[in-house]
Design brief:
This protein is mainly alpha-helical and about 200 residues long. It is built from eight helices and no strands.
Amino acid sequence: MVVEEYRGMMFVSHFLTSVLGLLFFNIFFELSGPEFLAGIILTSLLAGLPDLDSQHSRISRKHKKTSWLVRRFTKHRGALHSPFVLLVLACFLALPSLLFTDDIVKWVLLISIPLQLHAFTDFLAEKTSILYPLTRKKFGLGVFRTGSRSEKFFVDFLIILSLGFFLYLDKWFELTILLLTWLLTLPKQKFVFSKRKSIKK
């Protein structure tokens, strides 16, 4: 039986790069404990959100009706992969933070981390509507191929480089969180990439 292949980055890759972004954000903004925990939760929830525009993605399989509605307005790697659209979405999602803080900018940035990094890493690999709404034309760098070993090598390289950077700066908290996250997701990485390899094209 031939199964249609979903040509997109794996959720685990988007999650790891988003956690990495959150840790660098923490270095500069020194988040409190509850803020950092909220950042981890937001990363888990939002790292795959832009892929609601593809019916084969993990998040679309879980939220079929929402994905169906999104796909009525945009194609895969279309408007939901535009930095401008994602910034507007982050501003909207951050509005509830006004109930307990005046620093809405920090929450817009926290929400933007997984969304913008998702769009950026997809842009590195494939063509996306990165300049939407200025143009619907898609651009991409083709640094690696999504869903392939090169994707895993790229993400692992970023993590190893960042671990060295955190070690150099004596950022033991960030180093520990990143190392634990990476190690805990290794079984998942092995599973999804092995499964991807077994799919007939």
